[in-house]
Amino acid sequence: MLRYGIEELRRRGCKGIHFLVNRHNVKAIRCYAVFGFRVVGECHMYDQDFLCYEKEL
User: Fold this and answer.
1) Among 24, 25, 40, 46, which residue has the least CB neighbours within 10 Å?
2) How many Å apart are CA 57 and CA 47, to the nearest integer?
3) What is the percentage of the chain residues whose pLDDT exceeds 90?
């Protein structure tokens, strides 16, 4: 599903993807690494710590 989403965003002309993931969500973090996402920041909100991920398309 992630691969399809990335391709669809490319098709629509998007230049990149940014999103937040809970820093304790190990399964998601491993998955994003496989797809070439990188951590570009972090934040704290809703009493949780998040990592900001980015991928250029």
Assistant:
1) 46
2) 31
3) 96
Q: List, for residues 26-55, the tens digit of each pLDDT value.
A: 999 999 999 999 999 999 999 999 999 999
DSSP state of 7: H
Domain with 25, as residue range(s), is: 2-56
Strand-pairing partners, residue 52, are 20, 41
Cα separation, 47 vs 38, whole angstroms: 23
Tell me how many domains the chain contains.
Answer: 1
Instruction: Read off φ and ψ for residue 40, nearest 5 degrees.
Output: -120, 0
Q: What share of the chain is helix, strand, coil (3-state, %, to 5)?
A: 35, 40, 25
Q: Is 54 left (phi over 0), alpha (psi -120 to 50) or beta?
A: beta
pTM of the model: 0.80
